[in-house]
Design brief:
Bound molecules: nicotinamide-adenine-dinucleotide, 3-isopropylmalic acid, manganese (II) ion
Largest sheet: 10 strands, mixed
Radius of gyration: 21 Å
Number of strands: 14
Low-confidence stretches: none
Number of helices: 11
Strand content: 15-25%
Distance between the termini: 21 Å
Order of helices and strands: EHEHHEHEEEEEEHEHEHEHEEHHH
């Protein structure tokens, strides 16, 4: 019995997770995957009611689970960053989910490229460091010098004092990107093991080492050493060139390691290469802890409540949850079920269909049930 925490969250998170749960229910009816879901009301509604983002009780509850199935957070009634940092980034940090696995697969005919070449890029986004640690602040005459930042994480305790001033009296804001040797080494190890398991002979490392030489220079050195240890080739790509290459020659990439911020950006591009944001699933993975599976898209306030959100990204996240929990055949079945939904044009309007979110979920669940032996 797998104990799964379910956090639908905000906006279309509620809609796509309901569809994803229909599909997981169907899987449990026809296979040995048995689960015991518990819904946790984390999100903007609770925050606006009680001021709570992620409480100690939430963390204790989530820690007791085998995995987390997450929808999305984000609400126009709340200032940008409050929910994102206080809930989503906090969970990734607290559970030390240091890999964000985001596959980018050619789902023909959805691929918007002229050349019909199949591709299957597996982005491994580092998920705890880089510019995502909230290490920043403001300083200057309006703020009082010096600026002081203090960041406490399970893995870090950073104290920084900054004394700086501009001769013209400007105020400043700053955001610092940190990488640690421990953080890079475990990321590189995971990427190398992942490439080996997939049968890739190279790892592509995306960065901007020509500008951010401190962080990405260190990262390059460690990746050189690790890939040599694993007997893998290492390819460096600058992130700007990578954005171009994903359009021009996506089939030349397999396992791609990318730091946190660039990974966020490139995988939205990757989602669009698969047909849209409604096609991108992801796993926030701690190989030794509690992992969290979610669509890469957000709460989509522009379409929330209309029942037209594409639930496939949430279904692909459920596929990754199954694979992570030791049910690879059931995972493969969801992949086939999604393929069938596309082939039979049982899709939401973003993919040219006319079905609702729940109808697409039901169609995928019915396909799953139809494979009962
Ligand atoms: P978004 O991903 O919510 O939406 C971007 C665009 O894609 C919108 O036009 C939306 O309608 C469309 N879209 C997204 N998912 C779709 C789906 N399943 N089916 C059909 N269309 C879909 O990004 P945004 O608008 O920049 O952000 C909205 C809120 O979500 C913000 O508060 C943001 O911080 C938050 N956000 C949360 C997550 C998360 O929880 N993991 C991820 C990204 C953004
Ligand atoms: C994502 C989202 C998050 C991120 C935001 C909401 C913090 O965009 O999961 O891709 O930047 O990682
Ligand atoms: Mn994103």
């Amino acid at each position: 019995m797998k104990h799964i925490a379910v956090i639908p969250g905000d906006g279309i998170g509620q809609e796509v997770i309901a569809a994803g749960m229909d599909v997981l229910d169907a899987v449990s009816e026809i296979s040995s995957f048995q689960f015991d879901p518990e819904e946790v009301p984390i999100g903007s509604d609770r925050y606006l009611r009680t001021g709570e983002l992620l409480t100690d009780e939430d963390i204790a509850l989530l820690k007791s689970k085998d995995a987390i199935y997450f929808g999305a957070i984000g609400d126009p009634r709340v200032a940008p960053g409050v929910l994102e940092q206080g809930i989503l980034l906090r969970m990734r940090a607290v559970f030390d989910q240091y890999i964000n696995l985001r596959p980018v697969t050619s789902w023909f005919p959805l691929v918007p490229l002229k050349r019909e070449v199949p591709f299957d890029i597996h982005f491994l986004r580092e998920n705890t460091e880089d510019f995502y640690m909230g290490a920043g602040g403001e300083f200057g005459p309006s703020h009082g010098d010096p600026a002081h930042i203090h960041i406490r994480r399970e893995t870090y305790d950073l104290d920084v004092d900054l004394k700086a001033s501009a001769s013209n009296g400007d105020d400043f804001a700053f955001e610092i990107g940190f990488l640690s040797t421990r953080g890079i080494e475990r990321f590189a190890d995971y990427a190398c093991r992942y490439a080996k398991a997939r049968g890739d002979s190279k790892v592509t490392l995306v960065d901007k080492a020509n500008v951010c030489t401190h962080v990405y220079g260190l990262q390059r050195e460690i990746f050189k050493r690790k890939t040599a240890e694993y007997g893998l080739d290492l390819e460096f790509m600058f992130v700007d060139a990578m954005a171009m290459a994903m359009i021009v020659r996506p089939e030349t990439f397999g396992t791609v390691a990318v730091p946190n911020l660039f990974g966020d950006i490139l995988t939205d591009l990757g989602a669009q290469l698969q047909g849209g944001l409604g096609m991108g699933g992801s796993g926030n993975i701690n190989p030794e802890g509690v992992s969290m599976f979610e669509p890469i898209h957000g709460s989509a306030p522009d379409i929330a409540g209309r029942g037209i959100a594409n639930p496939i990204a949430a279904v692909l996240a459920a596929q990754m949850l199954l694979e992570n929990q030791g049910f690879p055949e059931e995972g493969k079945l969801l992949h086939d079920a999604v393929r069938n939904a596309l082939d039979t044009r049982q899709t939401t309007p973003d993919l040219g269909g006319s079905l609702s979110t729940s109808e697409v979920g039901r169609g995928i669940a019915d396909y799953v049930r139809s494979t009962r032996r």
